[in-house]
């Protein structure tokens, strides 16, 4: 048996050899890990770029069709990714039917490490764009629907709740991005005296408060299954406001668009509501991954 | 006795090292080049990932301004209506190449300017050429300040939510 301790004769030869071997093994292992990491990152990056290219091409191809195919999930032919020759089967998911409040077009790539999804939403007001209630409301700016008022399809909004309501002041300062924003639980308050640019659709299952002095300059939809409160001096330049219960409009509020409530609209006399039927046209969100 | 043996070991290591100095030197040089390539590769990936993310998903309107044959000034009007970001190059401290910066402007707030490349990396080419209303060709060249190694890449980016508005 070879003795590795220095007081043995074999130790003279073995010690430096072991020492060198140790260094070389460490170096080799380090390089191997570096190369492996780099290869994995690079592979992931390349894979992501292929999804991106295919996803956008597919979505544009569908959107440019003069007549959309029937709603449903379509399994498309398999695609081979490089490097690694991994095959993925793209899915095209079309969720729409006439007057459905949230319609979607989704391209999905399930792969070995997860799923990559690209989506765009098409939002319709309750009852559809050409509901008679909106036509009459366009003349005066507001209407109480009563029993004939269409209902909000809460389940649909919850299904597409990828974007929560903005909460940071910075989100409002930078401006809205045009998404569907969904809140599931508590009532929501927009900040007071804030100028908010950009477009967006806000769905909340309970009350929405727009605090005094807030000014929306873009295209806004406020949808609530509870009440909506527009406090004093609120400005909405291009708005569709729909409450399943009631709407309270404060003093000196100015709204251009359509206000609909099922039960009651309490408005101060100094408020100015101007009708605009254009606000109930289909609202199309940007494409987003999630 | 133990001290003597350790000295022998060190002597043997020294002899081995001097004998294999040349291949070892080449090996170390190869490692250095590999490390430099990896650093450049990582920087390229970071920059392209950032640019792709912002151009593809976040940009509503992109304006390109050719500064010279190697540089383009990008102005991105984001989906967030009040936010604009510019990507531009300024000469690197070392005298050759450029440093890439981003300048973010939100209406009502102070402009913020930050470098996107670390001091040891210089940008040699930052060129964006429009192909059509939605697509552009990106040529990105990166180099290291302390070495001659460079890395050039060409990518094609298509704006997912915006258009290329004008080329000035």
Percent in helix of chain B: 25-40%
Estimate the strand proportion of chain B: 35-45%
Shape of chain A: elongated
Mean pLDDT of chain B: 89
Most residues in contact: chain pair:
A-B, 34 and 33 residues
Spatial extent as radius of gyration of chain B: 23 Å
Question: Quick check: average pLDDT of chain A?
Answer: 89
Segments of chain A where pLDDT lies below 50 for 5+ residues?
none
The dominant shape of chain B is: elongated
- What structural class results from the helix and strand content of chain B? alpha+beta
Query: What letter string, H or E per element, gives the SSE order of chain B?
Result: HHEEEEEEEEE
Catalogue the unreliable spans of chain B. none
> Approximately how much beta-strand content do the residues of chain A carry?
25-35%
- Termini separation of chain B comes to 81 Å
- Total beta strand runs of chain A: 21
Q: How would you name the oligomeric state of the polypeptide chains in this document?
A: heterodimer
Rg of chain A (C-alpha, Å): 29 Å
Structural class of chain A: alpha/beta
């Amino acid at each position: 048996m070879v003795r590795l301790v220095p007081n043995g004769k074999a130790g003279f030869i073995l010690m430096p050899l072991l020492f060198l071997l140790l260094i070389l093994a460490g170096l080799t292992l380090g390089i191997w890990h570096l190369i492996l990491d780099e290869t994995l990152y690079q592979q992931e990056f390349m894979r992501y770029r292929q999804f991106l290219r295919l996803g956008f091409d597919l979505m544009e191809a569908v959107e440019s069709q003069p007549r959309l195919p029937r709603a449903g999930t379509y399994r498309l032919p398999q695609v081979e990714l490089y490097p690694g020759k991994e095959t993925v089967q793209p899915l095209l998911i079309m969720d729409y039917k006439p007057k459905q409040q949230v319609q979607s077009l989704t391209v999905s790539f399930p792969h070995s490490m997860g799923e990559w999804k690209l989506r765009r939403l098409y939002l319709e007001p309750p009852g559809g764009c050409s509901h008679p209630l909106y036509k009459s409301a366009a003349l005066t700016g507001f209407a109480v629907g009563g029993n004939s008022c269409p209902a909000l399809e809460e389940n649909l909004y919850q299904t597409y709740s990828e974007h929560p309501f903005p909460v940071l002041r910075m989100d409002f300062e930078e401006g809205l991005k045009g998404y569907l924003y969904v809140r599931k639980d508590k009532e929501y308050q927009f900040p007071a005296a804030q100028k908010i640019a950009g477009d967006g659709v806000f769905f909340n299952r309970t009350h929405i408060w727009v605090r005094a002095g807030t000014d929306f300059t873009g295209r806004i939809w406020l949808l609530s299954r509870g009440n909506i409160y527009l406090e004093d001096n609120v400005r909405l330049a291009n708005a569709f406001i729909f409450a399943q219960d009631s709407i309270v409009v404060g003093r000196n509020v100015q709204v251009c668009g359509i206000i609909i409530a099922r039960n009651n609209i309490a408005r101060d006399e100094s408020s100015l509501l101007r009708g605009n039927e254009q606000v109930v046209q289909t609202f199309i969100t940007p494409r987003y991954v999630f | 006795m133990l001290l003597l043996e350790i000295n022998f070991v060190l002597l043997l290591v020294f002899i081995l090292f001097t004998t294999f100095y040349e291949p070892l030197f080449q090996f170390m040089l190869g490692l250095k080049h590999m490390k430099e390539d990896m650093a450049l590769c990582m920087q390229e990936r970071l920059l392209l990932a950032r640019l792709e993310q912002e151009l593809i998903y976040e940009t509503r309107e992109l304006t390109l301004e050719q500064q010279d044959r190697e540089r383009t000034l990008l102005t991105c009007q984001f989906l967030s209506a009040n936010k604009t970001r510019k990507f531009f190059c300024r000469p690197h401290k070392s005298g050759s190449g450029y440093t890439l910066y981003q300048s973010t402007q939100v209406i009502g707030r102070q402009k913020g300017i930050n470098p996107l490349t670390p001091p040891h990396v210089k940008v040699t080419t930052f060129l964006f050429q429009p192909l059509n209303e939605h697509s552009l060709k990106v040529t990105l060249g990166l180099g290291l300040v302390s070495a001659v190694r460079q890395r050039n890449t060409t990518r094609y980016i298509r704006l997912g939510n915006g258009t290329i508005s004008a080329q000035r």
